[in-house]
Amino acid sequence: MQRIGVFVCWCGSNIAGTVDVQAVSEALKNEPGVVFSTNYQYMCSQAGQELIINSVKEHNLTGIVVCSCSPRMHEATFRKTAAAAGINPYMVEIANIREQCSWIHKDMEIGTEKAIILGKAAIAKVNLNAPLTPGESPVTKRALVIGGGIAGIQTALDIAEAGFPVDIVETKPTIGGKMAQIDKTFPTLDCAACILTPKMVDVAQNDKIRIFSYSEVEDVKGFVGNFDVKIKKKARYVKEDICTGCGVCTEKCPMKKVPNEFNLGMDNRRAIYIPFAQAVPKVATIDPNACNMLKSGKCGLCAKVCTAGAIDYTQKDEIIEEKYGAIVAATGFNPISMDKFDEYAYNQSKDVITSLEFERLTNAAGPTAGKLLRPSDGKHPHKIVFVQCVGSRCESCAEKGKEYCSKICCMYTAKHAMLTRDKYPDTEVYVFYIDVRTPGKAFDEFYRRAVEEYNVHYIKGMVGKISPEGDKLMVRGSDLLNNKQLTIDADLVVLAAAIEPDKSARPLATMLTASMDTNDFFTEAHPKLRPVESPTAGVFLSGACQGPKDIPETVSQASAAAAKVIGLLAKDKLTGNPCVAQANELMCNGCSSCEKVCPYGAITYVDKEFRMPNRTTAIRRVASVNPAVCQGCGACTVACPSGAMDLNGFLNKQIIAEVDAICK
Amino acid sequence: MQVNGEYKPLIVAFCCNWCSYAGADLAGTNRSNYPDNVKIIKVPCSCRVNPMFILRAFQRGADGVILCGCHPGDCHYTSGNYYTRRRMALLFSMLNFLGIEKERTRVEWVSAAEGAKFAATMNEFTEAVAKLGENKRLEDLRCKR
Amino acid sequence: MQKITSEALINKACELLENKTVNRVLGWKVGEFAYDITPALFTDCDSLKSDFVFGDFCGANFSKYLVSETRKSDEKVLVFLKPCDTYSFNQLLTENRFNRENVYAIGIPCEGMADISKIKAAVGDGIVGLSSEGDKIIVDTLYDGKQEIDAKSVMAERCAVCKSKKCVAYDELMGEEGEIVDSNRFDEVEKLEKMTEDERYAFWQGELSRCIRCNACRDICPACTCENCVFDNPESSVQNKAISDSFEEKMFHIIRAFHVAGRCTDCGECSRVCPQNIPLHLLNRKFIKDINDFYGEYQAGAEVGNRAPLVDYTLEDLEPGEALERGAEN
User: Fold this and answer.
1) How far apart are CA A68 and CA A42, in angstroms?
2) Domain that holds residue A600
3) Nearest residue on chain C to B98, alpha-carbon basis
4) In a domain, A237, yes or no
5) Neighbours of B (≥3 Cβ pairs closer than 8 A)?
6) Which residue of C190, C251, C312 to mutate against B (max B Cβ within 10 Å)?
7) pLDDT in tens, B2-20
8) Domain map of chain C by residue range?
9) Contact assignment for C313 to B86 by CB distance below 8 Å
10) Closest in A588, A618, A653 to C237, CB measured
């Protein structure tokens, strides 16, 4: 029989406000196994924990029930407390009487009654708890960073700095990501390339970092500390180690009309190309969809002009298998498609562009060499309208836009407006906005400068329709502050398109078994306290794949993720979760049902000799669970027809005891 | 079940640790009200829920049983909820085949971000079960109070 | 009614015993009454000749016996398998329940088995002898002497809707290779599905309330080969030896059917052995029908190594709510 202590937490008034904690601790006193029951203001505080420790010693407790906040919050805390008191940490159960009770019920009587039932369920469970000891597994001291934008770059550099090898996998032929496409950065207006490219070079030169560019993660198996990853290195038809990046091939290639994705299709590149001058790795890549040689075997010009002999038309996709201890997702974002926003005439007029296209138009390395010219006729625009929140904060347009705020648009629009007015003072600039959101160091000052120093016309209101008329774009919108409808005959319209997670994030999340929110942003293990970790152990989050972020925030999160990775890789061994499945060999049929449903391949079979009736023996095939691999989902426990499989910490009898306690 | 001579539906909700339990926590954090009839049992994954647990709940006086797990594709364990989906589709269909009201059993996918959905689901489910009245078809008279 | 004779099977068994291919034979043996046939193990030709029988009352599916029988000796055991038994045989192999090498399986054709309760209903009590001639069954009764009845009219329900006359597993096939049959085996399930919840509840309440919890359905079921059945395991929460509440009846049969869902080959043994004549196979068939409807046609035991539907999934599987809606549409 257990000797259980019950500790009811007030959580200040969070629980005590709607639950009569005294009544709860009194009521639970009489439950089977309970030898001590008390309540205290803050059980998680130092004093609260000491109360538990002293009670354990005083009453010889073997099990602890804490009626408090969610176990997701403090289960770990109280397990440590139990350990400090000298009992097995897994002899602790939490009754969640805050999130599931005091916070949702307003009536004291109802709250108290429910809290007692939840407490009884936890007591019923603890009565059947048994001490558990976690197993240990080794850690592969190498990290994988998926995505080579500024987030991935910063994370990789920081991990390498700590002395651990890192691999970056980037789907594009070069690292650099979105930041490489940006012209200037707010709020300091220094050029993005000037601060990004040195970091790219650092990555290339760091001998701890390997870059798998033009590559994708194909498969992830394993678990924290022991991931087995397959990386598909797509054939770029150029030998990476031989190509010097001289660029002669990219000038000679006869296929000149391939839309240049780096410039968002606003100009063309060749079939063999280097995305931009500072690309890392600076090697050419052949676009197999455009190259004549690869499509029809006719041409071969690049091979002829390549003095290094780097061209290899026979190159095949290559699968690289590597072990990692930690994986960082840094898959970044993309602006959403403007195809569904007919009201903004994005597909009708070339002069309606997105903000990222605007970045390329003002970038010295862009299609217009940095001159702000209209894409339709190459003329200098004199009246520019910026439309904010295109698809952001759009509750009514879920099918084409996003409900969330894309966060970065207010600032980059202010930047664009300011830069335009600075370079071309003869240009009138209008910005339509819902709200201007500028929290951040020196951000609001920046926006004020745009309005006050640069005379950018900020109009609170949304644009209803944009219609091309002649060479003008008639922008009809409302000015809410003046309560007026207005029409602006603009030369150029820039849409601040909402941003969304990269499309590769969803399949990657599935491979990593990392959870995502409804918008396909990765979910963090805790929104406030563990913002750079995924709930899946060993998977970390860096940059905009976790939520919209500007560069400073991305970089800080990237470094934070790196710190977490370093913390993990610095360990030689990990102690696992002891709540793993266990097969009762006497009952196991060896039917393989459990093996088939196990997502981790944790179950194998062994032949064992068993005693049978009449002094005979028989060899039977029985399941055996690898506790280091088992993650404790319990799929096997239900698949098992005989009930031979059970899950430590969530035993059949424990769950049934909880059911019984609740239904009593 | 009967409480002080009045019918008050008892709902047992099995919630997976990673999504739905967190969703329930979020409902609490947001102070989203849902009936106190709902009592949550935490399981690591919805696939841990054995049909025996569900029958046990009905036997002991539950009037409705709901299983909440991660959305398909989001299972912390990759595939657990896919098995749940099949098992429960078949089990619920069988219960209904035996004449058990189909409104008494439900599976709902609730992510950690869907506190509001959790509360709404529980409100709606409790109401639906309340309409049915007491669970008479899977009750065990020995467990009656 | 059966095309293959006892003599042919006895001769084959004797031959295999004599040439030491096998050292024992799982077969049917006449019991107290002609229709009361029991499974038996034969180890010599003499006993085969005196006791072995094959006829219209040899419904017993031997595949399950192989689990324990093969453990007893490394030498092969001979088993005769009717087409529906071969499915169970394969399913057990899929679940690694016995060693294929320890068995010599002979597939035999089956023309359908007779249901003694139907015969009794037709001729009354006091049956002292039974024989078959062509399509007729000759019943010798205490009171009315010999009566001839049409074999088809007294065929067991499960045989009337036979799903397959094809042996899907054997070392040797006797008689002709049969075909998979397009049967109407789900008609009865559909009839129930079309009822209202209340009607279905009343129907099953009526049927299951007769359950005396003798466990015969479980004990005969070739899918129920667990080393330790949950119903015998005090830790399982469902262990019980007697029905003491109507809940128990339903719980027992739901769990029983669920445990074999996706593994049940629809051999119908559960209903055959039920002393209370509860149509238990309808529960299993409901699962089979649902599995077919929800996840595509699946026949347990059709091949060794098939992945049972409940240990499998697709990303697009229907939701449990949709499953219930489909039920409501019927």
Assistant:
1) 9
2) 581-648
3) C201
4) no
5) A, C
6) C251
7) 777 788 999 999 999 999 9
8) 6-114+161-173, 116-154, 187-329
9) yes
10) A653
Asked if C217 and C283 count as a contact pair (C-beta separation under 8 A), the reply is no
* Residues A76 and A103 both lie in one domain: yes
Structure tokens belonging to residue B112: 């950690």
Cβ neighbors of C68 (< 8 A, separation 6 or more) are none
**Is A587 touching C (CB cutoff 8 A)?**
yes
B56 contacts C237? CB cut-off 8 A: yes
**B79 chain-C contacts, CB cut-off 8 A:** 313
Find, among A261, A321, A319, A320, the residue nearest to A285 by Cα. A261
Tell me: do A544 and A421 sit in the same domain.
Answer: no
Phi, psi of C315 (to 5 degrees): -65, -25
Q: Which of A103, A632, A656 sits opposite B31 (nearest CB)?
A: A103
How far is C16 from C25, CA to CA, in rounded Å?
9
Of A102, A54, A119, residue with least CA distance to A82: A54
Same domain, A366 and A473: yes
DSSP assignment string, A277-303: TT-SS---EE-TTT-HHHHHS---HHH
Kind and range of the H or E run holding A153: helix A150-161
At A588, which CATH number? 3.30.70.3270
Q: How many CA atoms lie within 13 A of C267 on its CB side?
A: 35
- CATH number at A381 reads 3.50.50.60
Query: Between chains, do C309 and B83 touch, taking CB under 8 Å as contact?
Result: no
Residues A285 and A417 in one domain: no
Question: Is the Cβ of A596 closer than 8 Å to some Cβ of chain C?
Answer: yes
B28 with A98: Cβ contact below 8 A:
yes
Q: Which amino acid is at A286?
A: I
Q: pLDDT tens, A563-574?
A: 999 999 999 998
Q: How many domains does chain A have?
A: 5
**Percent of chain B whose pLDDT exceeds 70:** 99
Strand partners, A210: A167
Q: Which residues of A touch C235 (CB under 8 A)?
A: 643, 652-653
Residue C246's pLDDT is 82
User: A357 and A493: one domain?
Assistant: yes
Please determine, for the modelled complex, whether the ipTM score is greater than 0.90: yes
DSSP of A572-593: SEEE--S--EEE-TTT-----H
Contact A593 C312 (CB under 8 A): no
Spell out the domain ranges in chain B: 2-143
Which residues of chain C fall below pLDDT 50? Answer: none
Identity (one letter) of the amino acid at C328?
Answer: A
**What local confidence, expressed as pLDDT, does residue B145 receive?**
62
**Could you give phi then psi for residue B57, rounded to 5 degrees?**
-60, -45
Q: Which residues of A293-319 are buried (b: 16+ CB within 10 A; e: fewer)?
A: bbeeeebebbbebbeeebbbbebeeee
| CB-nearest partner of A642 from C72, C228, C308 | C228
Return the exposure string of A430-450: e unless at least 16 CB atoms fall within 10 Å of the residue's CB, then b.
Answer: bbbbbebbbebeebbebbeeb
Residues of chain B contacting residue C250, judged by C-beta atoms under 8 Å apart: 98, 138
Give the distance from residue B43's alpha carbon to the nearest chain A alpha carbon, in angstroms. Answer: 7
C35: nearest Cα among C47, C17, C53: C53
Q: What is the pTM of this model?
A: 0.72
Averaged pLDDT for residues A371-378: 94
Q: Answer for the pair C229, C218: CB distance below 8 angstroms, yes or no.
A: yes
Dihedral sign computed on CA atoms, order B54, B55, B57, B58: positive
Sign of the Cα pseudo-torsion (A561, A563, A568, A570, in order): positive
Options 1.10.10, 3.30.160, 3.40.50, 3.10.20; which CATH number does B2-143 get?
3.40.50
Chain B touched by C308 (CB under 8 Å): no
From chain C residues 56-75, the ones with a CB under 8 A of any chain A CB are: 71-72
